[in-house]
Each structure stands twice: as structure tokens, then as C-alpha cells.
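My current task is to audit a protein record that another person submitted. What it holds is a sequence and that sequence's fold in C-alpha cell form. Thanks in advance; the entry in question is below.
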Amino acid sequence: MSVVIPSLRAAVAVPGWAKNELWRRARAVPSLDLRFADNKSLVDAVTGQSLVPFTRASSGTFVDSAGVLQTAATDVPRFDHNPTTGESLGLLVEEARTNLMLRSEEFDNVSWGLLNVTVSANTQVAPNGTISFDTITDVNGVTSANVGCFQSVTLADSTTYAMSCYVKAGTKSTCRVGIRDKAGTNIFANFNLATASTTVGNAISSTIQDAGNGCYRCTAICASLTGATSPRGLVYMDTGSYTANGTGTIHVWGAQLEAGAFPTPYIPTTTAAATRAADVADLISQAIANNIRTLYLEFRSPASGTRGVASLNDNTANERVNVLTSGTDPRLIVFDGGAEQANMNGGTVTANQRTRVAVRINANDFAISINGAAVVTDTSGTLPTVDRLMLGRTQAGEYLTGTLARVIGWDTTRPDLQTLSQ
């Protein structure tokens, strides 16, 4: 006679939320999970469908995983990378910008004026992988504070501009980048390519960004002021008084002068100024948007001005839930019927560094946590009625002008935002 012995271990059902780390933290399957940095696509990881229409009325540049500057065609999304590590940063969503410099890669062109230098074209490999870096060489015997290239431009009065150029050390490892303002003053920042460092000089601010292969993008933020002098964009070899011997060189490429308090990805030009149109990535679905109660966002912001990270709205200012950065402050702002219901500051955002924000959106229950910090709450307020999720912008046209790595939405309120945003 045989005896059947029941199994001592019953089968354990694995919950759907166990499939992903962030789902496990929330202990719930989301209604939406856009993994822009991981998947480099617009496909939603929950449904497997491409839910986000994307448009941009021009081409646009981005850095690929090999650190090479590439160009995406009109209406093609850009998934950006760190040029030196290859890290995938996510979807670029940017406002429109215009490069005012002509012949941005051709310093030997007549569009450029030369001060005590000569130019040799196409001598080095540029950030876009082509041999298009130009070499500027000082003229023997010159003693001057102005050794380099300039181009006359038209600037608006009392406007902030970002002047940038890709520069690589030659026999010299210093340079100046800036403008001549409308009052006739040269406004510069100084750069040391050997130490990857910058000093502001008399500019508002300056940054030096490693572009790989010994190349750096040097940017000076300058004010145009007012006056009758013809303004210029300037790229100089010197950082003050300079004595030339005919062998001093640096390599230059990709000059860009744009209105704004920080630089955006390179916009190449030839015979005319060129504009990169704004990126638009909006999920138009009331079924999804109006039911989001918890939202997780991973992004990089320039932390300058007002930068929309995500917005649930009805395409008006009356009904909206905005997650944005105001300067360095990450904020959750809610309006219902045109009346403010919540306006909360979650902490501090560091410019161009990865930020994780989790927010809860429910009647009388609004909350925000940033990078695992303590949750900030507001327990009074009504919910707006929305029909879309705008990614990287608000209904007011406040663009992130940065990268979105991940966007997750749950149709339930998750209690532990601090754990979720770690």
C-alpha cells in the first residue's frame, strides 16, 4: 500500500511588484514606468507600449554611449550620455535655443576676425568624431592682452548670454572665452585646460565640462548691458598679458553664443544663426494622468530659473500639479479651479546632478521627498482634474532643459516617499 505525503513547502506566489527594485520599495505595481536612461526608448515598462508622442521641429545634438557628439533628426528623441564615463543620462527635454555664432566650426572663415593669430583648419578630431578642430597659433613677437578670434554679433540690451567653445590644449593650455558687451567692455572667464579649472574673471559665472579626449567645453555667462558698441563673441588664447613666440597653439571648435544663464547642447551653424526647437514629450491620457496619486521622478536639472520636471494638467494653469525646480529648490505646486492648494519646497537640488523626487498627490494629502530626505507634507487641499502628463515641462512652457532618467506613476498613494526617493 503506497502513502502520499503532502509537500512540506507550498508554492509561494510572487507578487508583481517584486519584479523591480523601485516597485518593491512601493510594494505596488505602477500604472506607468518610463525608463528613459535604462531602455533609451519611450516604451512603458508596465504595458510594453510606446505611450509618449515626441516632437521637436528641428534636429538636435546629444552624446552617445561612446562619448561622441551625434545629431538626432527632426522629431527623433535624444538619449544623452556622460561624455567621459558613457553613463546613460536619459531623455533630453529642452527649451528652444539659438546659436548666434556663424561658421561655428570654421575659425578660418571670414566670419571670424583674428587678433594676433593665424588659423589652420581641420587639424584634430573634434567631439563629433570628425577631423574638424581648428588650430590657432600666435604671431611671433606680439605682446598683447588680445590674442585669439572674435566675431561680431547682435545682442539684446541687458540680457544674459552663455558663450561657449570646445577647446583642446596645444602647446598652450590656457584660454579665455566671453563677449565684448554693448558698452565696449570685454567680459571673460579664464580656463586652465591642464587642470580642468576655471576662474570667473569679470563674467557672471563660468563652467568647464570634460568632453573627452582632452577636450573641454568652456563656458562664460555674461551680461550684454547697453551701449552703442558692436558686441562680439570672443575665444582668446591668453588669460591676460601675453607675449607670443609664434609657436603658441590651442585647438578650437563648436563656438556657441546663446541667450540664457547656462549652456545647452551644441547647435552647429554655417552661414546663419541656427535654432534648436523645443522638445515636446506629452502623454495625453486622462485615464492615466488623472489617476496618478504617487509620482517618482529621476532627473538632472540646471537648477537655474524655473525648470519643469513633470506636470499633470488640463493644458491650463487652473488645473495642474507641477513638479519643478525653482533655482535650487525642488517644489510641488498644486492648483485646482485656479486656486493654489499646495506649494511645497522639498529641499535642495544640485545643478546637473542626479536627483530623485517622490511626491504624493491626493485630497488633503500632498507630500514631497527628495533624495531620501524627510518628507514635507501639506494636509489641506483639493485635487485638480487633469488629462495629460507633460514630461520635462509645465503648461507655462517652463522647460527642464536637462535629462529625465525615469518617470513612474502609481494610481495609489504610497506611504513611504522617503524610502522611494533614496
The mean pLDDT is 95. The longest strand covers residues 249-259. The chain has two domains: 16-95+279-420, 98-276. The helical segments are 21-26, 36-39, 286-289, 417-420.
